[in-house]
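Late entry, evening session. Most of the bench is empty. Finally got around to the prediction I had been postponing all week. Sequence below, unchanged from the version circulated by S.P.
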Amino acid sequence: MVDYIGIANIQKMVGALGPAVFIEGLAAEIEADYRRWGEFDKSARHAIHSPVGVIELMPTSDGQMYSFKYVNGHPKNTALGLLTVTAFGVLADVKTGYPLLLSELTVTTALRTAAMSALAARWMARPDSRVMALIGNGAQSEFQAIAFHHMLGIREIRLHDVDRKAMDKLARNLHELGLRDLQVRLCKSAADAVQGADVVTTVTADKRNAIILTPEMIAPGMHLNAVGGDCPGKTELHADILRRTDARVIVEYEPQSRIEGEIQQMPADFAVTEFAQVLSGEAAGRASPAEVTIFDSVGFALEDYSALRYLYKLQQVQSLRQEIDLVPDLDNPKNLFGLLAAAPGGTTQAAPGLVKPFAAELTST
C-alpha cells in the first residue's frame, strides 16, 4: 500500500494549521533542503510543449529519497472553466524504488511557490519592506499575498490585473481572511501599483514574452519577485531591468533558469547567483539598501521534493493517513502473474474473438 493525499486531505491539512502557518513551515523545509544543495541530483525539468501549453516532469533525489512532479501549464484553460496549472507528485524510497507517497500537487504547488517567494525575499528584500505590488491576480495571487504578509510583514498590497474580475476576487478573498493589519488597494495600471512599492511580485499567466515591468517603473531598493516567467518564450520584465548596474539577479538552478527564466533574454555570460549560494554565505542576497534585487523564479524540483516530504510527515502527525493499492503485495515477488490468477471471479483465458489490437479500434473509429 502507498500513502495517498488527495484534495480533501490537503484541505484538512492546511485548514488545521491555517495557510500562513502551513506556508511558513513549508518554507523552513525548503530552506533546510537548499542548505544541503550539494546532496541533490539536479537537472532542468523535461518539458513537452504544444501550441497551447506545456507538460513537464520535474525529478530530483538526495540519494535517500526520490521525487518527481507532473505539472502542466495551459494559460487558455480558464476560458474552458479549467485550471491553468495542475500537478501531482510521487515521493519514493531510493533503496527499494518503492513509492512512499502519491499526492496532489496542484494546491501544494501554489503553496510552495509562495513559500519559496517569501523565503527568497527574506534574504533579498530590505528588512523594512512593507508595501508590495502584486501584478497578476489569478490562482497564485492569494498564496503570494498571504506569504508576504505573514513572513515579511507586508502591510499594504496593491493589486493590478487586466481582468477586473480577478482583482475583485483577490480583494474579496483577502478581506475574508480577516487580516485587519493588511491594507488592500486596487490599481488601474501596473505603473500605479508599482509606484512607491518596496516589493513587486509579477505572476501573470500568458505564455508569451510580455513586458509587465519597464525600466522607468523600478526604483532603487526595490525587490522584484518575478514568478510568472517560467518557460521558454515567456517573460515579464524588460531586459534593461536585468541590465541595471545596481541590480542583483538570483535564481534557483541556473541551467534551468537560462532556458525558462527572465534571464533567457540575456547572453550566456550574464552573471547570476544561485539561491543556495546565498544560504551558504558564498554570496549576498542584498549588498546595500539601494540595490535592486531580482528573484528570477521558475520553480525547481527541490522545492517539490521538500513539499512532498513535508506532506508525508504532516499527514502522519495529523493522523490523516490514507492508502491506495498502487503496488502489488505478493507472497512470492517472482510470481506477479499469480496476482491475476488469484483475482476473484477472474480468468486468465482470453475469450475467442474478444481481443484485438487497440490501434485497430482507433483506426475503425
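Two things to note before I forget:
The chain has twelve helices and 17 strands.
The mean pLDDT is 93.
Will write this up properly tomorrow.
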